[in-house]
Amino acid sequence: MLLVGMLALGTWLSGAIEKRMIRHEGELFALYMDSVLSDQVQSLASGGLLSDAGMLALDKLLHGTMLGERIVAFKLWSRDGRVLYSTDLTQIGLRSEITPALAAAFRGETQSRMFALEDEQRRLQGAHGSELIEIYAPVRQPKTGLILTVAEIDQTTDILDQTVGAAQAQSWMAVIAAATLMYLLLAALIMPASNTLIAQKQQLQEKVSELTNLLAEKEQVHERVARAAGGTTARYERSLHRIAVDLHDGPVQGIALAAMRLETLADVCRACSAAIGAKSTVAEDFKRLQDALNSAQQDVRSLSKGLHLPNIEELSLGDVARRVVRDYKSSSGMDVELTINNVPEDGPLPVKITLFRLLQESLANGFRHGGAVKQHIVLGTSNNRLEVAVRDDGRGFDPQAAQTEGHLGLQGMRERVEVLGGTFYLWSAVGQGTVVRADIPLTSRDGA
Q1: How many whole angstroms separate alpha carbon 341 and alpha carbon 353?
Q2: Does the reported pTM lie above 0.85?
């Protein structure tokens, strides 16, 4: 930028110097010609033509002198555009259109410009260079200052070129010196700041590298935690399955055997009339025991069935929700509205398990505790997370009181969602129903 600025400034200065030197040259030459020609053109004061003596004096001035060597062409103009005198004799007496420069000279303004010559013009005028200085200089009457004529002078640029070249060389030297000084000053000012910036940049790069490593380690830890959480969910369900099997094969069978044995004993003692206490017989007590055992057997079977997770590994997320709705309708007789919006076909097994248990528990709570008539499930996805919402029109409750009382169902739903890195939200109010919301990352790993 400094170099470009230096070149632009030097170029502008060179052009300005050249224009100024041309104007100065024109003014000096006009002043000289006015002082020299004023006596020779006095005959024009009476409105006549240039006298023979005046022409002869001009011929002597412009031929064989140092001034004549510099002048390539010379003319004297009248106000009406007629050539009064010319070094080219064929031009004398001709009339031409008054140019703006000629008009300005008759107003007393010296005009000067540099122009390039074509090859033919150089041959005709005998000029050696490729450029000439054209000057229009007013010539005045000494006493009155009245402009008698305008001299048009075309002169060579040899002396001017030397003067302009020297001035331009000096200007370039000044520009170069100023640019060098500015560069040194800027270097002195910027170097310490540059060193500071380099040191800060290096420190920043080190910090970025450290943060990158920390983020990579955090990502690895997060992946391991997610994998472990997925594995925990799967193992928890396997444990529940084993408990369900043990309940079915152990207590349920024992209760069934006891009930069958009591039924046999009840048949034997049905005819017994012995009373136990004041209001019941032995047969009646056997019947009550049998009914209690049958009820306990049904409860344990329901508990076993609830703990058992169906095979949902091959199901899509939408099909998991449909399976929950179907099982719930089969057991409760209640219809559930299900809305599925842009849910991917497949998902990690821990997510499927959590979705199944979350919907199962939410629907069961709304039916058993809330007395809900209408229940609605909405599934969707956003930012690679599964969004679940379950609404009902039940009696509702106070969530703070439920949290204080320690309801295991709500706590279990929250833990299942949060262990996979999701969020769980519960809203309810007395008489206004209940809303259960959860969003679960779909990047959960199955784990070991």
Answers
A1: 20
A2: no
